Amino acid sequence: MAVTAGSEPPLEAGTGQLLVHLRSVLPGLAGALRQVGNAILEDPGWASRATIVELGERSGTSPATVTRFCRSLGLTGYTELRVGIATDIGRADQAGWEVGLAADVLPTDPIDRVLRTLLAVDLQAMHETAAGLDLRAVETVVDAVVAAHRVDLYGVGGSAAVLKDTQMRMHRIGFASWTWSDVHNGLASAALLGPDDVAIALSHSGRSTETVEMLAQARTSGATTVAITNFSTSPIAEVADHLLCTSVREISYSSGEMSARHSQFLVLDLLYLAVAQRTHERATHTWVRTADAVVPHRSPYEPRSRGRGTETPADTTSGGA
């Protein structure tokens, strides 16, 4: 999902994005409404068949609360909610996601099952992230980056590692960019930005206080601010001019930011490639120059035999002669 901050688009049932939207707004829902959302996400298949009374009972709420929950998502009623859940499940089946919406890694799972689960969850997250992207909003961000004097990238922990890759590639196509993970240094840099600059913050939860503070300072300085997060109602959305949302579900032994990396790279790679497209001649020229600069530090390619101590067929032939 990619929207201008503060303009959450209305949800339409049957689009195959209801569960994605629910995961995105869940942290911002009030207590009882969040209980309903959690009950749905714990077992979407059951929820698509349950009556409004049954969902109220399982979530520890009431039919009236379930109705309010539907309206909070922009739905007309409970029937539309069930249709939306069923559509999401159908999309997963059609896409061939073997382990489905409730996949997780259990302590007793064999390694092949772990691999299938990991692949299914990551692929589903990337497909749902791509399906939810508003490409017009992405193009607006790309326009801002292309015209920018400089680009600041803010993130802490695993987010900083993801941004470092993007920053390196932006530099290689001629765009002055810096990654800041230390809040003091980041705030100092953000204070020097202006209307001709862009600041991009990455936070899976949208609640990392250091990242929110750095982006808020960039906005105060007049820069165009962009947030990439999994939760559209998180605090970072309040200080972003443009909000790009991933769609990620956590699995066991993997924190949210670890599960989110592939979807985050998808969004960042799209921004990077679109910028490179818009500046094709410049990007190609600087890319070649940077590639040539590191050639002397690469060892020449030397084919080796497959096994240690074994002769190649050519060696065997010459030895026998």
CATH superfamily of the largest domain: Glucose-6-phosphate isomerase like protein, domain 1
The topology string of helices and strands comes to: EHHHHHHHHEHEHEHEEHHHH
Termini separation (Å)? Answer: 68 Å
Number of distinct helices: 15
Total beta strand runs = 6
Q: Tell me, briefly, the overall form.
A: globular
Overall mean confidence score, pLDDT: 85
What would CATH call the class of the largest domain?
Answer: Alpha Beta
Largest sheet: 6 strands, mixed
- Secondary-structure class: alpha/beta
- Residue share in helix: 40-55%
Number of domains: 2
As a whole number of angstroms, the C-alpha radius of gyration is: 24 Å
Low-confidence stretches: 1-15, 315-321
Per the CATH scheme, the topology name of the largest domain is Rossmann fold
Spatial strand order of the main sheet:
1-6-5-4-2-3
CATH hierarchy: architecture of the largest domain? 3-Layer(aba) Sandwich
Question: What can you see in these coordinates?
Answer:
Helices cover 55% and strands 8% of the residues. It has helices at 18-25, 31-42, 44-47, 52-58, 63-72, 78-95, 111-132, 135-147, 158-172, 183-191, 209-220, 256-259, 261-278, 280-294, 313-320; strands at residues 2-4, 151-154, 177-180, 198-202, 224-229, 242-245. The protein has 321 residues and is an alpha/beta fold. The longest helix is centred in the middle third of the chain and has 22 residues, at 111-132. The chain folds into 2 domains: 9-95, Arc Repressor Mutant, subunit A (Orthogonal Bundle), CATH 1.10.10; 135-290, Rossmann fold. The protein has 15 helices and 6 strands. Mean pLDDT is 85; it is low at 1-15 and 315-321. Helix 11 links the parallel strand 4 and strand 5 (224-229). A 6-stranded mixed sheet has the order 1-6-5-4-2-3, with helices on both faces. The chain starts with a strand and ends with a helix.
